[in-house]
Amino acid sequence: MSLAVEKPLRLARQYKLQWEKAQDAWVLLYPEGLIKLTGSAGEILQRIDGQRTATDIISSLQSAFPDADLQQDVTDFLEHAHDKGWITTD
């Protein structure tokens, strides 16, 4: 399934993004457990607020990390997260 980059992204209802001090990482909590995220995944998912599009998120990350070419990596991760059902455009 392809992600619509012009639509606002939000976390799917069953997921909650949270910093876990014990894990020293961002995690996605869901009823059956949690998913420990890499640093970059946490940076991306923190920007998903129900109003920003994939394009907005990429722009925000490019501003935060100007020396990195992030567009393809962020797009790939967002598509992966969408395919896994972590995020939605609904």
Task: Describe the overall structure.
- This protein has one domain (10-84): Arc Repressor Mutant, subunit A (Orthogonal Bundle).
- The protein has helices at 39-46, 54-64, 71-84; strands at 10-11, 16-20, 25-30, 33-36, 87-88.
- The mean pLDDT is 94.
- The relative contact order is 0.24.
- Strand 2 (16-20) and strand 3 form a beta hairpin.
- The strands form two sheets. Strands 2-3-4 form a three-stranded antiparallel sheet, covered by helices on one side.
- It is an alpha+beta fold and 90 residues long.
- The two termini are 14 Å apart.
- The protein is globular, with a radius of gyration of 13 Å.
Name its key features.
single chain, 90 residues, Arc Repressor Mutant, subunit A, 3 helices
Shape: globular
The number of distinct helices, counting runs of at least 4 residues, comes to 3
What Rg, in angstroms, do the CA atoms define? 13 Å
The CATH topology: Arc Repressor Mutant, subunit A
Give the ordered list of helices and strands: EEEEHHHE
Number of strands: 5
CATH superfamily: Coenzyme PQQ synthesis protein D (PqqD)
The major beta sheet can be summarized as: 3 strands, antiparallel
Percent helix, as a range, is 25-40%
CATH architecture: Orthogonal Bundle
Quote the average pLDDT. 94
What's the CATH class label? Answer: Mainly Alpha
From the N-terminal CA to the C-terminal CA, the straight-line distance is 14 Å
Number of domains: 1
Low-confidence stretches: none
